[in-house]
Amino acid sequence: MTAELVRGQNHTLPQTRLEIRVSAGTPVVAGATLGDEDGTVHGTEWVAHPGSPQLPGLEVSRQAAAEHRLAVDLDALPASVHRVTVLLALPTGVGGPVRFGAVASPFVAVTGLEGSEIATFTLTGLDTESAVTALELYRRQGVWKVRAVGQGYAGGLAAMLADQGLTRAAELAHSIQDAVARAMARSVAPPPPRTPDGDRPPVAPPTASRPPEPLAEPVTPPSAAPTGGPINYAHPRRQASAPPPPPPTAPPAEPGHAARPVAGDATGWSMEERLYNQIWGMFEDLARTTAAYRSAVEFAESRMEQELDRTLSDPRNRIGGAGDRAREQARAKRDELTARAREVLDRDLAQLTAESAVVEPALPAAYAGWDNPVWHAYRVPMEIPMALRIGDLHLPESPELRIPLLVRLPLERGIWVDSGRTASEAAALMDTAQLRRLAMENAVAHAARLLAVYPADEFSVHVIDPAGSAAGALAPLVGSGALAGPPAAGAGGVASVLAQLTRRVDLVQMAIRAGAADSLPPDLDTGEQLLIVNDFPHGFDDRAVTQLRYLADEGPSVGVHLLMVADREDADAYGPVLDPLWRSLLRITPVADDHLADPWVGHAWTYEPLRMPPGSRVLEQVLARVAAARRPRRP
After folding, report:
1. If pLDDT is split at 50, 70 and 90, which confidence band does 13 have?
2. Quick one: pLDDT band at residue 514, thresholds 50, 70, 90?
3. Mean pLDDT over residues 494-515, rounded?
4. Which residues partner with 47 through β-bridges?
5. Is the backbone of residue 118 left (phi > 0), alpha (psi -120 to 50) or beta?
6. 303 and 333 in contact (C-beta within 8 Å)?
7. Is 193 exposed, middle or buried (0-12, 13-18, 19+ CB in 10 A)?
8. What own/partner pairs with CB < 8 Å and gap ≥ 24 does 191-199 have?
9. Angle of helix 169-186 relative to helix 156-163, nearest 10 degrees?
10. Are 391 and 610 in contact (CB under 8 A)?
11. pLDDT average, residue stretch 138-157
């Protein structure tokens, strides 16, 4: 029976291997400290946090998220540890809420590994606090118990750590928040949902403000629903009713066999929405089953080491055959546990692989790879799709199983194609010129996909190429006539394009604030705008850099988006001034690289850019149809 705790209440723990599940209404930082009998934390090495997520017997999330699962093995804690304190804090410097009183009350549950709840606690009564001590697990007379704490700190993470006796608490708090900001910049998460009336927020003429939103948690499909937190499937067009279940397009599974996978087997009001939710379900399923496998392997290794330590602590077992037999038995147990974990993983991978095989051919153009036949029947759409595929993701345990990386539309953050040779191991092996050409071709392909999935005249692409070095890669866009104008070259061209887009952002923002959409100039392009920037910061003076940062921060809320192709080392002269710019963009690479993290368990996923089939002319054909559908623009 679950114990529903109130502040100050405790409950005896029936087992020592636990999960602590956190559910909050906004991304929070989850960490834990190890304390002695008095609860004192003796150093930074006794704190598990996103920048240092693992300690003996304890593992926390690697990034801020609305849901967390912390793993605790009380038997594996150092003997000097008598208290484990679970901490929650709001991330700073990322545009989110700054006090717990402005968000839903966090919910914390202590569960067994199988998911059964042992004790729960809802942290109510918080107001100005930005950090809170949620729970503590403590040992009293050899028995472990959990106590609901709920102590908040208006002084934030630094004040909370200092209260536990940690010296240099402010320095550690700063490093934790910095690690969180970096992790959130690389986290894959869909942008906020559509507006309540069901339509995407208009750019112009504007009818309502569309301020930038904090990083949102992903849509959670039913096949991957974790135990605990609520699942919201409310469609924005029909807030008063639940969406229908997927149609029964496949016969029921035979006894003892897994259900036959079906494309669109998720909740949604349209096939597009069902496929979107199904893909995110596959993404989360793969993340969680891999996390379970890795946890099982780590437990098997830890158990073997503990058994060997106990056996070999007796000097009599260090000589003769006793020690050898103990080692063999411990290794046999480890191998058995690992093999069982791999069997479960392989079963889940087989099911996901079968599902992927039926989902991929059913994807619409916006979700499909360039090799999908759907592109050969491409027609300019009448409305914007929910999302766009910008690559694939996979994990080392299953490199053949690729999950489409979908970003919601309209884009809520810009994209940075990293052309630096230090970006990844694969990039380091390539010639600099070859890598930069590949990065620009990748950017052109993304721009072409965006043009292709928007209705005619609702999306325009501008290009800044100061030195003209990307002429070859830009040929498909230039030759098709799909660009809003010729690529801007030189310092004058850079200044002209930036001034035009900055003016657009300013005018739309003023119209929104004044509620005067009709006052926008007639020559203002009301469609969404994409600015491709090549070879940054070449051709940029300080004013241009400031304008670019302004577009990155303010542009997405009014339909102006960045697609940067740059090597960060080229901009080293600007130092930390540009750090907010890089963090505001979703970084992808022109070659495979494991730099993206999922929003559930924080795995490092290998990103694979979408490749054009050899000899294919699909890009040129799609751009030609886009250009043909565009209405002549007024001078």
Report:
1. very high
2. confident
3. 92
4. 33
5. alpha
6. yes
7. middle
8. 191/216, 191/407, 191/408, 191/411, 191/412, 191/413, 192/216, 192/412, 193/219, 193/236, 194/236, 195/236, 196/236, 196/239, 197/236, 197/237, 198/235, 198/236, 198/237, 198/238
9. 130
10. yes
11. 93
The answer for residues whose C-beta is within 8 angstroms of residue 408's C-beta and 6 or more apart is 190, 191, 386, 387
The pair of three-digit structure tokens given for residue 447, joined into one six-digit string: 């721009």
- What confidence tier does 62 reach under pLDDT thresholds 50, 70, 90? confident
Distance of CA 58 to the CA centre of its chain: 23
Dist. CA 385–CA 510, nearest whole Å: 28
Residues 6+ apart with CB under 8 A from 38: none
* 94 contacts 181 by C-beta, under 8 angstroms: yes
- Sequence length of the chain is 635
d(CA 330, CA 494): 66
Alpha helices in 313-403 (DSSP H): 321-359
- Closest among 486, 488, 481, 484 to 465, alpha carbons compared: 488
Quick one: tokens of 184? 């959130």
- DSSP letter for each residue of 224-246: GPPSSS------TT-TTSPPPPP
Neighbours of 581 (CB within 10 A): 23
Helices marked H in 249-320 = 271-312
pTM score: 0.70
Structure tokens that stand for 233 in this block? 């499937």
Q: Which residues of 600-613 are buried (b: 16+ CB within 10 A; e: fewer)?
A: bbbbebbbbbbeee
Amino acid identity for residue 568 in this structure: R
Sorted by sequence, the CB contacts under 8 Å of residue 311 that are 6+ apart come out as 317, 322, 323, 326, 330
What is the arithmetic mean of pLDDT over 74-87? 93
Local structure of 154: helix, strand or coil: coil
